[in-house]
């Protein structure tokens, strides 16, 4: 009984540590995650007098390394989210501040992140890829294209129908906007494109690298923190031997997504999506096998009949060279009588 009381008191203490937003219309339910270095904490909350649930992101600059850069990142995320309207990007709802902290309120998506789901079939991974590419197409078609800059499993939610949602636009920026030197290397190691790491200009192909790295992690069942195990000494992904069941075409598509030279990647999400759609992700079916599967049954019968005729003819030619004349005449008669029937309609 004493243990139950202790646990109850401990839970009460933890609950009391949650910020109080009742005067602003929100009640915090629980903490969803935190980034101590960046001074960010994410909470799940109820909207008072409503059944709606929301996500509240706290930017606590008292614990952040650079207050000014943190404030600008917070402001930039709000500006970007306010101009977005996509069903698979959580909507901006509200923002407010208290001394030492800013808060961003967004739509809550009841779906786990890819960082918590460890196993997918390759076909499911293709579906997730298509879903994410559709989101990137939307971002890249904005009047001023938007680059997310932090695509990784933890920032992607996936529901039971394999619909993907892209979250955390804290590092996102408009493609042509100038960026401070201090924020060049602001993404996640292993998922950042090489041009991001070296401070070069970003393009619509930059997010494709991060998406490709994410998909490779899913295929190989590799945790984000262990992505370095998939990258060789030449800074190229080396994962092919880990996924023998995946088709060569899908592996080639992935390798082009994570090509270190951005000029050799797909130019943008629309081009990558078009290239991915017809690809079979499992197996290594040849062109001949695909052709045979497409032939109608009646045509298959005709083809098999032709093969039978050719086979009989070959046997006849073989016997001509080694059998007496009587046997040759018999084979010739057989071919002459049977072959026309193979093409007669019933």
CATH C-level class of the largest domain is Mainly Alpha
Categorize the overall geometry.
globular
Separation of the first and last Cα atoms? 86 Å
CATH architectural category of the largest domain: Orthogonal Bundle
Number of helices: 10
Describe this structure in words.
- The protein folds into 3 domains: 2-107, 2-Layer Sandwich (Phosphorylase Kinase, domain 1); 122-288, Transferase(Phosphotransferase), domain 1, CATH 1.10.510.10; 295-343.
- It is globular and about 60 Å long.
- The strands form 3 sheets. The chain has a 5-stranded antiparallel beta sheet, covered by helices on one side.
- Strand 7 (156-158) and strand 8 (164-166) form a beta hairpin.
- It is α+β, with helices and mostly antiparallel strands.
- The chain has helices at residues 2-16, 67-82, 122-140, 194-197, 206-219, 248-257, 269-276, 287-294, 297-320, 325-338; strands spanning 26-35, 40-47, 53-60, 92-98, 101-107, 146-147, 156-158, 164-166, 173-174.
Topology:
Blueprint: H1 2-16, E1 26-35, E2 40-47, E3 53-60, H2 67-82, E4 92-98, E5 101-107, H3 122-140, E6 146-147, E7 156-158, E8 164-166, E9 173-174, H4 194-197, H5 206-219, H6 248-257, H7 269-276, H8 287-294, H9 297-320, H10 325-338
Antiparallel strand pairs: 1-2, 2-3, 3-5, 4-5, 6-9, 7-8
């Amino acid at each position: 009984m004493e243990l139950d009381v202790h646990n109850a008191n401990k839970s009460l203490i933890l609950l009391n540590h949650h910020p109080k937003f009742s005067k602003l219309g929100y009640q915090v339910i629980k903490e969803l995650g935190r980034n101590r270095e960046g001074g960010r904490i994410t909470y799940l909350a109820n909207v008072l007098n409503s059944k709606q649930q929301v996500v509240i992101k706290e930017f606590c600059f008292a614990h952040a390394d650079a207050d000014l850069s943190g404030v600008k990142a917070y402001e930039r995320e709000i500006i970007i989210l306010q101009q977005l309207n996509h069903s698979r990007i959580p909507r901006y709802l509200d923002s407010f501040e208290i001394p030492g902290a800013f808060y961003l309120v967004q739509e809550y998506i009841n779906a786990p992140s890819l960082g918590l789901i460890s196993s997918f079939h390759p076909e499911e991974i293709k579906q997730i890829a298509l879903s994410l590419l559709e989101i990137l197409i939307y971002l890249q078609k904005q009047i001023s294209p938007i680059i997310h800059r932090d695509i990784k499993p933890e920032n992607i939610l996936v529901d039971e129908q394999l619909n993907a949602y892209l979250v955390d636009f804290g590092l996102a920026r408009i493609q042509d906007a100038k960026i401070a030197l201090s924020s060049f290397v602001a993404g996640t190691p292993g998922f950042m494109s090489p041009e991001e790491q070296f401070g070069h200009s970003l393009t619509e192909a930059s997010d494709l690298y991060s998406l490709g790295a994410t998909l490779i992690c899913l295929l190989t069942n590799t945790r984000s923190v262990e992505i370095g195990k998939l990258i060789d000494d030449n800074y190229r992904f080396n994962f092919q031997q880990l996924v023998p069941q995946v088709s060569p075409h899908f592996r080639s598509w992935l390798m082009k997504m994570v090509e270190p030279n951005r000029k050799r990647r797909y130019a943008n999400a629309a081009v990558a999506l078009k290239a991915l759609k017809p690809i079979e992700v499992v197996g290594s079916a040849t062109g001949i096998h695909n052709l045979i599967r497409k032939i109608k049954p009646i045509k298959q019968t005709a083809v098999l009949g032709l093969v039978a005729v050719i086979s009989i003819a070959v046997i006849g030619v073989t016997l001509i060279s080694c059998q007496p004349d009587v046997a040759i005449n018999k084979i010739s008669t057989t071919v002459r009588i049977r072959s026309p029937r193979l093409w007669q309609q019933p």
